[in-house]
Structures are given as structure tokens and as C-alpha cells.
Amino acid sequence: MASNWLQVGDIQTIRNLYESNSKPTRKLKYMKLEIKNNISLKDFTTYKTGGSAKFLIEVTNNEEMMQARHHARAENLEYILLGGGSNMLFADDGYDGLVILNKMDKIRYEAETVTVEGGVSIAMMVLGACKKDLGGISGMINVPGSVGGAVYGNAGIPDIWIGDILLEAVILPEDGYEPTIVKRDYFEFDYRYSILKKTKDIILSVTLNLEFKPEAETKEEIKKYSQERNAKQPIGKCCGSFFKNPEGEKPAGWLIENAGCKGMKVGDAEISEKHANFIMNTGNATTKDILDLALKAHKMVKDKFGVSLKPEVQIIPDNPFNNL
Ligand SMILES: Cc1cc2nc3c(=O)[nH]c(=O)nc-3n(C[C@H](O)[C@H](O)[C@H](O)COP(=O)(O)OP(=O)(O)OC[C@H]3O[C@@H](n4cnc5c(N)ncnc54)[C@H](O)[C@@H]3O)c2cc1C
User: Fold this and answer.
1) What's the Cα-to-Cα distance from 8 to each of 31, 61, 75, 114, rounded to whole Å?
2) Ligand 1 atom nearest to CA at 80
């Protein structure tokens, strides 16, 4: 693994950047961030596929996040946020830009809220709340990944989506320079949708609404949710549901199963026998194997039911379903 220590976010560069856009200048603390080169993305995604990121920077606080983004802008690099990598499918030839890996991990529980940084894992937040007799979010226990990733796609289960309980958030706006507080309405939450899919704003932290609930009660709920999930869904390398449930139609899993796709394979990619909307990497599948299989299932569903499924997973850089 190649890696070097560079001074990023050179103050003058940033100042020029601000001034050229007639934005207020802001003194950023001098800081060193490690820029890693040519890093395999397999190690950072639950699918365990994909090539390498040209550059990767891990950030642990707001300032580092700002510096990393400024670095990308100053160097004219494409950049993308990465949380738990549980909803990402990177191309086999990698990502020709900067991956910003979010390791911001602070949590603060208050009376009936939690304020949590974007890099914190959902499960850790739920378990931490449980210990403090705070509940109302146990349904999220089996949603892998980070809080930031969850807000991006309004992740959740039928009982609860993260957007339902979000009170406010601190974002780093795509078109701004200062961390900014926004309320729930800003996000225009919908099924697996938030405005972040359009704006590319970065979630720094969010405040979520919780409720008082004795630890024992939440523990029971967590057990129930986990048992239900284990009964219905396979375990292994995947991104959860591959396709979104189409509006006004049967669920994607039903459509894929009834189009006859269960058990279909391309290389080591396989449509799960347990749940047809799960495309598993059963060994050394490539991203191409997974996408070829998904495209096959897409066509079979379209031919049989006339429904064009849309992927839930983020396919980087090119989403082959966009024009279907
Ligand atoms: C086994 C399994 C089960 C799953 N079950 C569910 C489920 O029940 N419900 C559900 O909704 N999802 C489910 N998923 C999908 C996934 O867990 C969610 O989409 C999750 O919220 C993604 O979070 P992440 O941190 O892994 O995001 P990543 O995969 O790292 O990123 C996803 C997107 O979010 C963006 N992003 C990440 N962090 C930030 C940030 N701080 N600010 C702005 N944008 C950001 C990324 O750029 C990317 O576009 C499942 C996945 C797996 C592997």
C-alpha cells in the first residue's frame, strides 16, 4: 500500500478558491492529512469488489473533512464520501478520484435525542442508546453502515426510516464553505431518497429523536428484529436489497423470483435462493459479474411484468440502469 504524508488544504490555495468565488475567507487550522494512493476498495465495501481508489483520505473531524474536500477541489479531483461501504458498487477498474472515508465517530446522548457524527455506525448508535434507556430506533439495528450513508439514502425498514426521526443536521453544503444547520424538511425525504442525492452535501452530524424506553424492552425488540431478518435474508457479501421496490407494484424480490431468476449465476455472483432481491458475491465475484447478473434479472422482470427496476445500490462511476 503506497502512502505519503502531504500538506493538504494549503491555506493560500483555499483562500484563492474562496476569493475567486467571492465567498468569505475562513482561516483553516493547518493540518496534515494522510493521502493514500491506489487503495483497493474491496477492503472498504461489503460487496468486496471493485478496483482501487486513486486517492483515499480518512477524516475524523469537521476540519479534516473540510480540508479533504478542499484538497479535491483545489486539485480538480472527483471525490466521493464513503461510510460503511454497504451500499456501494465500485467499478472493477476503480475510482479515478478521491475517496473520503468518514471516520467521524462522536456520539452524544441527551434527554430524548442523540447527536451523532456521520461516520458512526447505525448499530453502535442503537446499542449505545439502548444502554441509556433510549429507544424508538431498534428497527434500524440490522441496517449496516454509517449514519451519513443512512441519511443519504433515507435507509430503514418498513417500520422506520432514518428521515422519520431526524430533527436537524449539520451539513457541509456542496455550494458553501461553512458547516450549516438544516432541519428535516431540507432533505425532502422519500423512499430511499434524500436531497443529498442531488446536492452532494456532506453530512457532518445529525440529531435524531429518541424516546425513553427501558434497556430490557429495547433488547427484546432488537432480538425480535434480528430473528425476523435472519429468517428472511441471506448472510454474506452483498449490499442488502439490490433493487428498490417499485411504486404500486409487487416488491422487487417477488418480481425477480417470479420472473424465474432465483439461483441464477454469473461467475461468483448469485441471486439468493433465500431472497431474490439479494445478489450475493459467493466468492470472488467482480463488479462486472454482479452487474451482468443484475442486468439479466432486470430484463427478465421487464419482459415478464413490464416493470423497469431501479437499483438501490450506488453504482460508481457509471450506473448502467440509468438508460433502461
Ligand atoms: C446485509 C445488508 C443489509 C442491508 N439492509 C438494509 C435495510 O434494511 N435498509 C436499508 O435502507 N438499507 C439496507 N442496506 C443498505 C445499506 O446498509 C444502507 O444503504 C446504509 O445506510 C448505507 O450506509 P453506508 O455508510 O454503508 O453508506 P456507503 O455505502 O458508504 O455510501 C452510500 C452513499 O451514501 C453517501 N454517503 C456516505 N456517507 C455520507 C455522508 N456523511 N454525507 C453524505 N453522503 C454520504 C455515499 O457517497 C454514497 O453515495 C443493507 C446493506 C447490507 C450489506
Assistant:
1) 7, 15, 10, 32
2) 47
Domain with CATH 3.30.43.10 in the chain: 2-102
**Which residue is catalytic, options 241, 257, 270, 272?**
241
Q: What is the crossing angle of helices 122-131 and 215-232, to 10°?
A: 150
Give 109-161 pLDDT, tens digit per residue.
999 999 999 999 999 999 999 999 999 999 999 999 999 999 999 999 999 99
User: CATH number of the domain at 235-316, please?
Assistant: 3.90.78.10
Q: Can 241 be counted among the known catalytic residues?
A: yes
Instruction: Return the CATH fold of 2-102.
Output: 3.30.43
Q: How far, in Å, is the centroid of ligand 1 from the Cα of 20?
A: 35
Other CB atoms within 10 Å distance of the CB of residue 18: 15
pLDDT digits (tens, 9 = 90+) for 25-45: 444 444 578 899 999 999 999
Residue 14 CA to ligand 1 centre (angstroms)? 31
